[in-house]
Amino acid sequence: MGFKGAPQAKQLDGSNLRIGIVHARWNQSIISALLEGVDTQLAKMGVRKENIVVQSVPGSFELPFACSKMIAASKTQTNTTMTATDLLASSSTNLAEDLKKASSTSLSTAFDAVIAVGVLIKGSTMHFEYISDAVTKGLMRVQLDSGVPVIFGVLTALTEEQALERAGISSNEEKNHNHGIDWASAAVEMALGTQEWT
Ligand code: DLZ
């Protein structure tokens, strides 16, 4: 029996995208499996390794702040591969041609999408409810405020077994599905979509 929950991934080309990943370190083995799912799917969709930046934070509660900082920092760096000095040193006598080349080699380092990955497992106190709510609202706010899609890669599981199933590593193979795959597809789709809308 195949997994029926996730919509079919579109055939999309992520080869020009830059993707940020921020993950929490709580429930590390589950996080690792989810990150593997993200990584495999990003590669399948053509996203290049050098265009993926991974950062970690202690727990899920820190994800919104970290995503916000990561996006803001990436927007302020614009890497121009041909500088004015390069232009002056250029042996070509055709300045117009050189200027055209310089602008076409300018590469933005801004992220096209960020994936926030965390695993929250319900305990015996209200901690789970408060953090789940804060993180969900925080990540939504970051994407609306920044204009950069932030993918909600946070499992909010009632039991550890549920989280293992959603990371594709439980002993019940029938129930296994790695949600990291869906998060990577969503990141590429949203990144390409927002490029088309502007
Ligand atoms: C404190 C805490 C607890 C109890 N459970 C989790 C969890 O299941 N998953 C997770 O990502 N983080 C957990 N944390 C840590 C908080 O997210 C946060 O890192 C701390 O409260 C410090 O702000």
Automatic annotation (TrEMBL):
One of its GO terms (biological process) is riboflavin biosynthetic process. Gene3D superfamilies: Lumazine/riboflavin synthase. Its EC number is 2.5.1.78. The keyword Transferase applies. GO terms for cellular component: mitochondrial intermembrane space; riboflavin synthase complex. Keywords: Riboflavin biosynthesis, Transferase. InterPro entries: LS, LS/RS, LS/RS_sf. This is 6,7-dimethyl-8-ribityllumazine synthase. It comes from Serendipita indica (strain DSM 11827).
